[in-house]
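Need tokens for this chain, all 594 residues.
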Amino acid sequence: MEQNIWFTLLSCVFFMALVAFISYKKTKGNTDSSTGYFLAGRGLTGGFIAGSLLLTNLSAEQLVGLNGQAFRTNLSNMAWEVTAGIAIVLMGLFLLPKYINFSITTLPEFLSKRFDEGVRRYTVVLFMLGYVLVTIPSMLYSGALAVLKLFDVPALFGITYTQSVWLVIWIIGIIGALYAIFGGLKAVAVSDTLNGIGLLIIGAVVPIFGFFALGDGQFFEGMKTLTTNNAEKLNAIGGPDDSVPFGSIFTGLIFANMFYWATNQYVIQRTLGANSLKEGQKGVLFSGFYKLLVPFYMMIPGVIAFHLYGNDLRSVDLAYPTLVTNVLPTYLSGFFLAVLLGAVLSSYNSLLNSAATMFALDIYQAGFDKDASDEKLIKVSKIFGSVVAIVTFFISPLLMNAPNGLWDLIRKFTGFFNIPIIAVVLIAVLSRKIPSLAPKVAIIFHIFAYYMMVWGFEQLFGLPINIHFIHIYGILFAIELLLMLAIGVVKQRTTPFEFPSNPSVDTTPWKYSVATSIVLFASITIVYIVFSPIGVAYTDGVVSEYFSLAVLGVVILTAILVPLSIRQWNRKYNTSYQSMNSKRAVNSEQGNVY
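Here are the structure tokens for all 594 residues:
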């Protein structure tokens, strides 16, 4: 046993050291300027962006949390991940071109240009509180939980379980902080991409071994057991009592995903580091296809664990770690641990990097030293990142007593900051006459209203609001949009805002962006058909007779729309860009600056 542990640890260290070495070689000498440190020198390609987005988003929080929810209920929680494609398309086709035209580094900077410095400060405070109190601690704790289940840390070091949680959190946190604080965004992106490849490999391996275990050594027998026994566990069409009712996808959930993929600083910072709009769009849209793998990689293992262990586990969040411990061969344990830690470190160092970026640019430079040098900004960023890291080391262990699993707890608390930010950003780009007063009122209103509707009325007056918290997302989003529009009517800007165009990179859009978006929408629909009562959740067999017809209908419609979208792009853009290039060539020959 001790020999196995040392083999796992040494092989894990080898894989992590390899990633660190490659990241160092790829980023050496690229962090001397603020653009190099905060935006990877605006040199990221689509592959690095997609890989970084994958690892930034998919962490131990998902591995542990989503599998725990699948173990506890069904696959309805996959809506958080699979339907993200809708928000990803909004980001790639609509918001990313505006961000790149603004040549911004942070989202609060975008809002300061559209509104004023007050709105910038409001959004920075929301981001900071959300990152420090909720998101970063949850990343560290979920990673620690997975490590503790894989290794008997209390017995290994002769300490208590609580002490073990603290120890592992500090070790993971310190390693992640070194990447984020000293390597900058490019080091984060490169390491994310390498770890992302590992996650794709190990994500496929775990359910494969799980099927063998479920089928007593027979892979297909395990798959048959999964789809015929308790088939309702594979249903993603959530009912009213599920964690994610299906109807909530079209109310609050879609806006929560819009926040995450279109306005969340630690996600969009990768796209702002793209070397062109085309590469940025590729990276964003490709990440949408990665999200479709989530139910297979991060929920099916939870259902397999349900079939293997029933209700014998102490906590739903132990489903995935227990399965891995029992089915993964020893020779893969070090690689799995390296990938798991890589996923944790990725999300953690991405959040830390973004928090430090916002502090340096949106608080320190904007409020205290407008002429700060690149060297000073990088130094301030590193100091603040170190402080945030230490603070989160103390907050993370407090999540040990989450009653209904880590996943639901995190989703509820992110409601304090995700909805007002996406509402403000959409108003910023859709209306040129709304004044800066409107978003300030909406943000303050949301914080109080969300608390009262989710917890306050029951805690203070004994009057529970029996509305699912995701529906509350949608209700407050609509109210806040109307509130800002009403303020715009009463106190309109004297002159409509004009969006400037000051790009730092080429803004030619990707020719296949619309076609890729159509294929992404079709793929989302097919995944939902697969995990529905006419798909593998069919209780009278493997799948219903309507399954093939439904999939075929989606494929035919997609085959019609994709060529039409490419033809439309050619008509709309090709002529104008050819004309622009001709003008540039003429001006270049004449020695003029175009």
